[in-house]
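Internal tracking record. Fields below are filled automatically when a chain is submitted to the structure queue. Please do not edit lines marked as system-generated. If the sequence contains nonstandard residues, flag them in the REMARKS field before resubmitting.
Queue: standard
Priority: normal
Entity type: single polypeptide chain
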Amino acid sequence: MKFVSLRKFIYKTQKNFGWVITAVLLIIPVALWVLMQPLSVRFSSSASTLTSIGQLTGLIGIVMFALAMILSSRTKYLGALFGGMDRLYRIHHAIGILAFMFILLHPLFLAGTYALSSLRNAALFLLPGLDVSIDFGIYSLLLLFVLILITLFARFRYEIMKFLHQILGVSFLLAAAHIVLIKSDITQSIPLRAYIMSLIALGTLAYVYRTLLGRIAIKRYAYVVTAVAAHPSNIVEISMEPKDRSQKLSYLPGQFVFIQFVNDIVGDEKHPFSLSSSPYTPELRIAVKALGDYTTKLAALSVGTEARVEGPYGDFVYFKTFRPKNKKQIWIAGGSGLAPFLGMARDILYSARDTSEYVIDLYYTARSKADLAFLDELTAISNTLKHFRVIPFCADEKGYLTASNVIEESKGISGKEIFVCGPPPMMKSLKQQFADLDIPAYSVHTEEFKLL
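SYSTEM-GENERATED OUTPUT FOLLOWS
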């Protein structure tokens, strides 16, 4: 019981740690702002109240914007600090939206001070041309507004969405120029100025590191495609070997990487892929389902194609669960979500570690038996390892997999680690079903790839 309580504490700490850090980083500038002048003076009249709220929203907005830029650097250290890359990017996304809301309110409240005497002056304040320092803020907000709308409602290709996210850095630099040039409380308080400028500097460095100097600053491994194998359900598995054996990627089974194939047909876009290989085998493998223009083209890759690999990332690893005795596990794969499980199953087979204590049920869900790629290999692994069981589950025969199906087939799920990877609706549904059954959230692990 003590270990369960400790693990629950660790999970909740990791889950909330990112927001705790964010709250602290927001409280500091607000506290410095409050100490500059009595609140009775700041909120003494309608005009001063609108001005003060405008200042606060701008202060909070730029801090959140800087944090969003810092989190977008995608460093492993930040991923570990925030409880995994998936959670880091969810927090990054939420902070970005909140930053936009506060930044939008900032000029509206300030314009309200002009509106008390003249609506015309309020309107002119919101238009560029009055002051270059204000213009930078207006241009930043307009660019941010357009990019946020596109991000929330448009559905472009991954590489286009990635490019649009990179342009957010331009909006941030414009906002930084606005902060530096305009006369405000930030310029009047040395501690507040030092704090805000430090965050702006870190946000700028993160942007330069990830976007402008990414090809130089971020380590990438040179690999060469050695095989492209077609499998059922429009899945291809691509095998790669390092150009230089001394420069081989070190990773854990179940992790993912970003790969850029240098090929005229595929192009040079960089995409995330779960690894389907075991670290104990010489080649690096990814299993990809054709779901769009880019993934469809991967089947046309030729042997000898160069691949640039960045990573590894992620904590979707069967032996990293904070509960060593919990070696009874349920794995649930849907569609292309099989890839990390394939890598973990191969790892158990080839691993130099003692995996004999693991008891694993792999539920492989698909629309029909014809869509069960790699089933023969998984069955062979199951026949070799008696503690590893493969359970095909086809929707055309049994409907969609439910928590009740898992409980019945696996003789209960209480006290077991549950790993789920597949289409987002499937993962969302199963997570809710497990929660309804009082399965602790820290025992349910997902790989969601929400990286934009």
